[in-house]
Specification:
Blueprint lengths: L11 E2 L6 E2 L6 E6 L8 H6 L2 E10 L3 E2 L3 H10 L3 E7 L7 H13 L11 E3 L14 H19 L4 E4 L1 H8 L11 E4 L17 E5 L7 E5 L3 H9 L1
Parallel strand pairs: 3-4, 4-6, 6-7, 7-8, 8-9, 9-10
Antiparallel strand pairs: 1-2, 3-11, 4-5, 10-11
Length: about 230
Protein backbone atom coordinates (compact mmCIF):
# COMPACT_ATOMS: atom_id res chain seq x y z
CA UNK A 1 0.00 0.00 0.00
CA UNK A 2 2.11 2.86 -1.24
CA UNK A 3 0.37 6.18 -1.73
CA UNK A 4 1.84 9.20 -3.39
CA UNK A 5 0.24 11.32 -0.67
CA UNK A 6 -1.01 10.18 2.75
CA UNK A 7 -2.82 9.36 6.93
CA UNK A 8 -4.60 6.74 9.40
CA UNK A 9 -6.33 7.06 13.33
CA UNK A 10 -9.45 6.45 15.82
CA UNK A 11 -11.82 3.50 16.25
CA UNK A 12 -15.00 1.71 15.18
CA UNK A 13 -16.51 -1.33 16.88
CA UNK A 14 -17.83 -3.45 14.03
CA UNK A 15 -20.83 -5.71 14.21
CA UNK A 16 -22.89 -7.23 11.44
CA UNK A 17 -24.82 -3.99 11.44
CA UNK A 18 -23.38 -0.47 11.50
CA UNK A 19 -20.46 -0.07 13.92
CA UNK A 20 -20.68 2.13 16.99
CA UNK A 21 -18.16 4.91 17.51
CA UNK A 22 -15.66 4.50 20.31
CA UNK A 23 -14.48 7.20 22.66
CA UNK A 24 -11.08 8.74 22.11
CA UNK A 25 -8.47 6.62 23.84
CA UNK A 26 -4.75 6.07 23.96
CA UNK A 27 -3.30 5.16 20.58
CA UNK A 28 -1.77 1.84 19.56
CA UNK A 29 1.13 1.47 17.14
CA UNK A 30 1.11 -0.77 14.10
CA UNK A 31 2.42 -1.04 10.55
CA UNK A 32 1.61 -2.36 7.08
CA UNK A 33 3.73 -4.46 4.73
CA UNK A 34 3.84 -6.23 1.37
CA UNK A 35 6.34 -8.16 -0.72
CA UNK A 36 8.31 -4.92 -1.09
CA UNK A 37 9.50 -5.60 2.47
CA UNK A 38 11.52 -8.77 1.97
CA UNK A 39 12.74 -8.70 5.57
CA UNK A 40 10.53 -7.64 8.48
CA UNK A 41 11.56 -7.62 12.13
CA UNK A 42 8.26 -8.75 13.64
CA UNK A 43 9.68 -9.30 17.12
CA UNK A 44 11.42 -5.93 17.10
CA UNK A 45 8.16 -4.26 16.09
CA UNK A 46 6.27 -6.02 18.88
CA UNK A 47 8.94 -5.16 21.43
CA UNK A 48 8.74 -1.50 20.40
CA UNK A 49 5.00 -1.40 21.11
CA UNK A 50 3.38 -2.37 17.80
CA UNK A 51 0.34 -4.59 18.25
CA UNK A 52 -1.06 -4.94 14.73
CA UNK A 53 0.01 -5.29 11.12
CA UNK A 54 -1.92 -5.15 7.84
CA UNK A 55 -0.45 -7.30 5.07
CA UNK A 56 -1.01 -7.10 1.32
CA UNK A 57 -2.81 -10.21 0.13
CA UNK A 58 -4.17 -9.52 -3.35
CA UNK A 59 -4.58 -7.08 -6.24
CA UNK A 60 -7.32 -7.19 -8.86
CA UNK A 61 -8.40 -10.78 -9.58
CA UNK A 62 -5.08 -12.28 -10.70
CA UNK A 63 -2.36 -11.18 -8.30
CA UNK A 64 -1.54 -12.84 -4.95
CA UNK A 65 1.23 -11.19 -2.97
CA UNK A 66 4.05 -13.76 -2.85
CA UNK A 67 5.13 -12.72 0.64
CA UNK A 68 1.67 -12.80 2.23
CA UNK A 69 1.92 -16.23 3.86
CA UNK A 70 5.41 -15.57 5.20
CA UNK A 71 4.41 -12.20 6.62
CA UNK A 72 1.18 -13.54 8.10
CA UNK A 73 2.96 -16.40 9.82
CA UNK A 74 5.73 -14.13 11.13
CA UNK A 75 3.19 -11.71 12.56
CA UNK A 76 1.16 -14.50 14.15
CA UNK A 77 4.21 -16.07 15.76
CA UNK A 78 5.06 -12.94 17.77
CA UNK A 79 1.49 -12.21 18.84
CA UNK A 80 0.55 -9.36 16.51
CA UNK A 81 -3.08 -8.83 15.57
CA UNK A 82 -3.06 -9.13 11.77
CA UNK A 83 -5.18 -8.81 8.69
CA UNK A 84 -4.97 -8.62 4.91
CA UNK A 85 -5.49 -5.85 2.40
CA UNK A 86 -6.56 -5.77 -1.23
CA UNK A 87 -5.20 -3.26 -3.74
CA UNK A 88 -8.21 -2.28 -5.85
CA UNK A 89 -8.10 -2.32 -9.65
CA UNK A 90 -11.53 -0.90 -10.53
CA UNK A 91 -10.81 -0.75 -14.27
CA UNK A 92 -10.14 -4.47 -14.61
CA UNK A 93 -13.13 -6.22 -13.01
CA UNK A 94 -16.11 -5.74 -10.70
CA UNK A 95 -15.92 -4.93 -7.03
CA UNK A 96 -17.71 -8.14 -6.12
CA UNK A 97 -15.31 -10.33 -8.10
CA UNK A 98 -12.31 -8.66 -6.50
CA UNK A 99 -13.82 -9.09 -3.03
CA UNK A 100 -14.33 -12.80 -3.72
CA UNK A 101 -10.73 -13.17 -4.88
CA UNK A 102 -9.50 -11.33 -1.80
CA UNK A 103 -11.45 -13.53 0.62
CA UNK A 104 -10.23 -16.66 -1.15
CA UNK A 105 -6.58 -15.64 -0.90
CA UNK A 106 -5.95 -14.33 2.60
CA UNK A 107 -8.48 -11.56 3.06
CA UNK A 108 -11.05 -13.45 5.09
CA UNK A 109 -11.96 -12.87 8.72
CA UNK A 110 -12.49 -15.03 11.79
CA UNK A 111 -13.69 -14.02 15.23
CA UNK A 112 -10.58 -15.19 17.03
CA UNK A 113 -9.70 -11.76 18.38
CA UNK A 114 -6.46 -11.71 16.37
CA UNK A 115 -7.78 -11.14 12.84
CA UNK A 116 -8.69 -7.69 11.56
CA UNK A 117 -11.44 -7.30 8.96
CA UNK A 118 -9.95 -7.03 5.50
CA UNK A 119 -8.96 -3.65 4.11
CA UNK A 120 -9.86 -2.27 0.68
CA UNK A 121 -7.01 -0.10 -0.62
CA UNK A 122 -8.49 2.72 -2.74
CA UNK A 123 -5.79 4.99 -4.09
CA UNK A 124 -4.21 6.57 -7.11
CA UNK A 125 -3.90 4.40 -10.20
CA UNK A 126 -0.18 3.62 -10.51
CA UNK A 127 -0.44 3.03 -14.25
CA UNK A 128 -3.18 5.20 -15.73
CA UNK A 129 -6.06 7.57 -15.01
CA UNK A 130 -6.25 8.59 -11.35
CA UNK A 131 -9.82 7.30 -11.01
CA UNK A 132 -9.35 4.27 -13.29
CA UNK A 133 -11.65 5.76 -15.93
CA UNK A 134 -14.72 5.61 -13.67
CA UNK A 135 -17.10 8.46 -12.95
CA UNK A 136 -17.59 9.50 -9.34
CA UNK A 137 -20.90 7.65 -9.13
CA UNK A 138 -19.37 4.69 -10.93
CA UNK A 139 -16.57 4.53 -8.37
CA UNK A 140 -19.01 4.63 -5.46
CA UNK A 141 -20.96 1.79 -7.07
CA UNK A 142 -17.76 -0.22 -7.55
CA UNK A 143 -16.78 0.20 -3.89
CA UNK A 144 -20.32 -0.68 -2.78
CA UNK A 145 -20.15 -3.88 -4.82
CA UNK A 146 -16.91 -4.84 -3.09
CA UNK A 147 -18.27 -3.98 0.36
CA UNK A 148 -21.49 -5.93 -0.16
CA UNK A 149 -19.66 -9.03 -1.38
CA UNK A 150 -17.07 -8.89 1.38
CA UNK A 151 -19.70 -8.53 4.08
CA UNK A 152 -21.79 -11.29 2.54
CA UNK A 153 -18.82 -13.67 2.64
CA UNK A 154 -17.34 -12.74 6.02
CA UNK A 155 -20.08 -11.06 8.04
CA UNK A 156 -17.87 -7.98 8.44
CA UNK A 157 -17.60 -4.65 6.72
CA UNK A 158 -14.13 -4.09 5.27
CA UNK A 159 -11.96 -1.20 6.30
CA UNK A 160 -11.36 1.38 3.55
CA UNK A 161 -7.92 2.91 3.01
CA UNK A 162 -7.62 6.18 1.11
CA UNK A 163 -6.50 9.80 1.17
CA UNK A 164 -8.71 12.85 1.46
CA UNK A 165 -7.63 14.00 -2.00
CA UNK A 166 -8.33 10.70 -3.75
CA UNK A 167 -11.69 10.28 -2.03
CA UNK A 168 -12.88 13.75 -3.00
CA UNK A 169 -11.50 13.47 -6.53
CA UNK A 170 -12.78 9.99 -7.35
CA UNK A 171 -15.98 9.61 -5.29
CA UNK A 172 -16.99 13.25 -4.98
CA UNK A 173 -16.64 12.98 -1.22
CA UNK A 174 -19.26 10.21 -0.94
CA UNK A 175 -20.62 9.59 2.55
CA UNK A 176 -22.01 6.16 1.63
CA UNK A 177 -19.58 4.21 3.83
CA UNK A 178 -19.12 6.51 6.81
CA UNK A 179 -21.31 4.50 9.20
CA UNK A 180 -20.23 1.01 8.17
CA UNK A 181 -16.62 0.77 6.96
CA UNK A 182 -13.83 1.91 9.30
CA UNK A 183 -11.60 4.51 7.68
CA UNK A 184 -7.86 4.03 7.28
CA UNK A 185 -6.62 7.48 6.33
CA UNK A 186 -3.24 8.05 4.76
CA UNK A 187 -1.33 11.27 5.32
CA UNK A 188 2.40 11.43 5.95
CA UNK A 189 2.52 14.35 8.33
CA UNK A 190 2.31 15.32 11.99
CA UNK A 191 -1.50 15.18 12.02
CA UNK A 192 -4.19 13.22 10.14
CA UNK A 193 -5.59 16.36 8.49
CA UNK A 194 -9.03 16.54 6.87
CA UNK A 195 -11.23 13.47 7.24
CA UNK A 196 -13.27 12.90 4.06
CA UNK A 197 -16.57 11.27 3.24
CA UNK A 198 -18.60 12.06 6.34
CA UNK A 199 -16.49 9.81 8.56
CA UNK A 200 -16.36 11.39 12.01
CA UNK A 201 -12.76 10.28 12.48
CA UNK A 202 -10.16 7.79 11.27
CA UNK A 203 -9.92 4.34 12.79
CA UNK A 204 -6.29 4.07 11.68
CA UNK A 205 -3.89 6.75 10.51
CA UNK A 206 -1.03 5.81 8.20
CA UNK A 207 1.32 8.56 9.28
CA UNK A 208 4.58 7.63 7.55
CA UNK A 209 5.91 5.55 4.68
CA UNK A 210 8.89 4.54 6.81
CA UNK A 211 8.76 2.20 9.80
CA UNK A 212 11.98 1.06 11.50
CA UNK A 213 11.05 -2.63 11.47
CA UNK A 214 9.64 -2.74 7.94
CA UNK A 215 6.89 -1.13 5.89
CA UNK A 216 4.73 1.91 6.66
CA UNK A 217 3.87 3.28 10.10
CA UNK A 218 0.26 3.16 11.31
CA UNK A 219 -1.54 4.45 14.40
CA UNK A 220 -4.77 2.94 15.70
CA UNK A 221 -6.83 5.50 17.56
CA UNK A 222 -7.62 3.48 20.63
CA UNK A 223 -6.00 1.28 23.22
CA UNK A 224 -5.30 -2.43 22.87
CA UNK A 225 -8.70 -3.37 24.25
CA UNK A 226 -10.39 -1.31 21.53
CA UNK A 227 -8.14 -2.80 18.87
CA UNK A 228 -9.17 -6.27 19.99
CA UNK A 229 -12.82 -5.20 19.71
CA UNK A 230 -12.20 -4.23 16.09
CA UNK A 231 -10.70 -7.65 15.51
CA UNK A 232 -13.45 -9.52 17.36
CA UNK A 233 -16.40 -7.79 15.73
Amino acid sequence: MKLFIAPWLLAFTLTNAAPAALEKRATTKGFDISHYQATVNYQGAYNSGARFVIIKATEGTTYIDPAFSKHYTGATNVGLIRGGYHFARPASSSGSSQASFFVAHGGGWSGDGRTLPGMLDMEYNPSGATCYGLTKSGMVSWIQSFVNEYRGRTGRYPMIYTTNDWWVTCTGGSTAFSTTCPLVLARYSTSPGTVPGGWPYQTIWQNSDSYPYGGDSDIFNGDLTQLKKLATG
